[in-house]
């Protein structure tokens, strides 16, 4: 038929390289240039449109971290940032904010915590030139109609 096929997702948890591995397991021959993810679009935007040259504090998935790294943008924040059981928000907040951070990028993060929200808010509040970029505008994730719960989207 001569049709070109592209794979597009708002998923920021899986990098294009990892999608390639998945497609390969299914015996599908797919080129990296045929895969577009929210993580890739965000990294491309930061590098080529904004021409960003600082460090990113991110709330998001491993794929987002990998895509930012792939375009040469250093990033911090992926993974767990747990809160102690006896955490008192008024007295126990004592983070060393990285002076090189110039943007906060937010996407779906299965490890979201109050620590991450405090850090992201603090980076944005300390410097009016600190960028805030969201990978996608979803306020919730889709769930089967038979389920009566809501899964928040990107840090809703």
TrEMBL record:
<dbReference type="GO" id="GO:0016791">
    <property type="term" value="F:phosphatase activity"/>
</dbReference>
<dbReference type="InterPro" id="IPR036412">
    <property type="entry name" value="HAD-like_sf"/>
</dbReference>
<dbReference type="Pfam" id="PF13344">
    <property type="entry name" value="Hydrolase_6"/>
</dbReference>
<dbReference type="InterPro" id="IPR023214">
    <property type="entry name" value="HAD_sf"/>
</dbReference>
<protein>
    <submittedName>
        <fullName>Uncharacterized protein</fullName>
    </submittedName>
</protein>
<dbReference type="GO" id="GO:0005737">
    <property type="term" value="C:cytoplasm"/>
</dbReference>
<dbReference type="InterPro" id="IPR006357">
    <property type="entry name" value="HAD-SF_hydro_IIA"/>
</dbReference>
């Amino acid at each position: 038929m001569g049709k070109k096929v592209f794979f597009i997702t708002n998923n920021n948890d899986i990098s294009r390289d990892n999608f390639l591995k998945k497609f390969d397991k299914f015996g599908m021959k797919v080129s990296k240039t045929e895969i577009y993810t929210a993580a890739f679009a965000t990294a491309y935007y930061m590098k080529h449109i904004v021409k960003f040259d600082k460090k990113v504090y991110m709330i998001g998935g491993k794929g987002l971290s990998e895509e930012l790294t792939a375009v040469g943008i250093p990033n911090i924040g992926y993974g767990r940032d747990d809160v102690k059981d006896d955490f008192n928000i008024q007295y126990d907040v004592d983070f060393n904010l990285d002076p090189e951070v110039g943007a906060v990028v937010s996407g779906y993060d299965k490890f979201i915590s109050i620590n991450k929200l405090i850090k992201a808010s603090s980076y944005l509040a300390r410097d009016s030139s600190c960028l805030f970029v969201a990978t996608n505008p979803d306020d919730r994730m889709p769930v089967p109609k038979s389920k009566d719960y809501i899964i928040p989207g990107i840090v809703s």
